[in-house]
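Hi all, long-time lurker, first post. I run a small reading group and we've been trying to get comfortable going from sequence to structure in the token notation. Rather than ask abstract questions, I figured I'd post a concrete chain and ask someone more experienced to write out its structure so we can walk through it together at our next meeting. Sequence below, copied exactly:
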Amino acid sequence: MSPLWRDAARHWLQVLALCSVVAVFTTLLWPNRTYVSQLVYSVCIGSLCWATMEFGRYLIPAKYCHVDPEGGRGWPQGWRGLVLTAVGIAVGFYVGDWLAFQLIGPASPGRTASSRDSAASLYVTIAAGAIGAYYFHSRGKAAALAAEIAKAERDASEAKLKLLETQLEPHMLFNTLANLRVLITLDPPRAVAMLDRLNGYLRATLAGSRATQHPLAQEFARLADYLELMAVRMGDRLHFTLDLPDGLREVPVPPLLLQPLVENAIRHGLEPKVDGGEIRVSARRASAADGARLVLEVADTGVGLPPDAVAPAAAREDGGGFGVQQVRERLHTLYGERATMELIAAPAGGTRATVTFPL
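-- Answer (accepted) --
Happy to help. Here is the structure in token form:
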């Protein structure tokens, strides 16, 4: 069933509930009529009122209507909405009354097909139609407003993510240029190789700089370029492994999510260690009470966390510098409390950073 017909069916059920209430009221107003007959008249009149307004709005140009959360045709604005309500009430009162008369006969003893009930019937129809129209109009307007607020929040979150990403790029670039400056005087051939790697890395980064998310495979490809870049400078002191299962290659993630963690591992873990070490970046799927989750891990065999941050709680709260803090902020912006990041001392030495968020 299409969303249009599903919404229409839901609205009609709400109209039927209102009609049953109106039937109770009119039965009390006219004791000589049975509840069943009043219910039939109420349903016929109410259903035709609703159908005229529900589908009549599609005859009005979209530019004069509110936009519903799904992007479809909402309630007409201004006087057009009032005219549609009046037409719906008129159709419901006259056509619906005639239809009910044909189905069960007169609601009042002695009434003929050509006679009309008292003006009270019209007043009840107008009141019930106005209540129903106002209900659907207010709900539609509230839903449209909520959709606009949600869109504004998404736009603000995306802008914040792009700001965080632009802060990360210069941070990585300045560190690399500082290392390149040292190599130019100590080892010019390696400096040239490092410059070539940097050129390739920046080309790939700029190509995807406008996206707020990209496939996990692309994130790992950027990490490979960055680690190759660092390997030119560190030589045999740096070894790395990238483990990405095929089933997770197309999972969308924020750009540059893992690079700050890898950079942190090199700068604070492997570089201070005389013989260097290894970095392993992996991805896996995990099950949780709230559904499947993606677990990304950056582990190194470096010098490890400082002695005052070896406790997992302390490491989770205070560990890491600029890059790690940016990762935390980006995760919070995208996923709120559903995402976690832990920076803890690995049992075999070194540090392990683990990022978890819903798939």
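A couple of things your group might point at:
The longest helix spans residues 119-186.
Residues 3-151 form one domain.
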